[in-house]
Amino acid sequence: MDEIELPRKTRRGIYLLPNLFTTAALFAGFYAVLAATQGRFEAAALAILSAQILDGFDGRIARLTKTQSAFGAEYDSLSDMVAFGVAPSLVAYHWALASLGKIGWLVAFIYTAAAALRLARFNTQIGIADKRYFQGLASPPAAAIVAMGIWTAHDFGIAGQDVAWLAALLTAGAGLLMVSNFRYLSFKRIDLQGRVPFLLAVLMMLGFALLYLNPPLVLFSLALVYASSGPIWTLIQLRRNRDRRRRASAS
Q1: Which residues contact 142 (CB under 8 A, 6 or more apart)?
Q2: Which of 13, 28, 60, 192 could form a disulfide with 50 if both were Cys (CB 3.0 to 4.6 A apart)?
Q3: Which CATH superfamily is domain 16-189+198-250 in?
C-alpha cells in the first residue's frame, strides 16, 4: 500500500527575546502597585521608570531582529495598560488621591480609562497614522508625569496629602492629554546609527550632567515639557493657518 502523507503541523510559538522585555516591563508595573500598597513610593516610581526603559527596547529589538508578530503587538499593548495605565493611577491614589475621598478614586479612574482609550485608539491606527507623530500624549510619558512627580515630591520630603489637589490635577491632566487630539513628536524616525552634529553630542553630555544632579526633578521637568509641547504646537499651527487664510482672503 502507498503511504499516506499526513499534513505537517503548523509550528506554533512566540519570539522569546522581545517578549522577555515586554514581560519585564509588565513585572515592573505590577511591582510598582505592590510597592505603593506598602508605602514605598520611591520604589514604585522607579519601577514605572524601569518599565518605560524596557518598553522602549522591546519594539526596537523586534524590528532589529525581525521578530515582529501580532502576538507581540497585543502582548505589548496589554503590558502598557498595566505599567502605564493601572500602575500610575494606583500609585498616585495610595500616595495622595485617597485623602480626597470619592474625588480621588474618580481621578484615578479617569487616568486609567484614558490610558485604555489611548491604547485602543493607537492600535486601530497602526499602519494608517503618520509615524512621525502621536495623536494624544502617549501612555509612557503620561505615566512619567505621575511617577516622576511623586518621586520629586518624595525627594523633597513633601507628603502626598499635602499636595493632594495638585496630584489630582496632574493625574487628571495627564489622562485627558492622552485622549486629546494634540499631536506629539514620536521620535521614531531618529536614526541612532547616523552621524549627528558635534553640538548635539555636547548637549547630550550636559543633559546627562543635569540628570545626575537631580534625577527626579530633571525627569519630571522633561515629562512636563513634552506634555506641554502638544498643545503649544497645536496653537502655533492654528495661528499659522489663520494667518494663511487672512493673507489668502486679502489677496
Answers
A1: 84, 88, 111, 115, 118, 174, 175, 177, 178, 227
A2: 28
A3: CDP-alcohol phosphotransferase transmembrane (TM) domain (1.20.120.1760)
Question: Which residue matches cell numbers 552634529?
Answer: 197
Higher pLDDT, 7 or 207: 207
The model's pTM is: 0.85
Please name the residue that has the C-alpha cell 497585543: 74
Percent of the chain with pLDDT strictly greater than 90: 54
The answer to whether the beta carbons of residues 111 and 146 sit under 8 Å apart is yes
Residue 126 grid cell: 497602526
- Sort 249 into a burial class: Cβ within 10 Å, 0-12 / 13-18 / 19+: exposed
233, pLDDT greater than 80: yes
- Is a pLDDT exceeding 70 seen at residue 13? no
Residue ranges per structural domain of the chain: 16-189+198-250
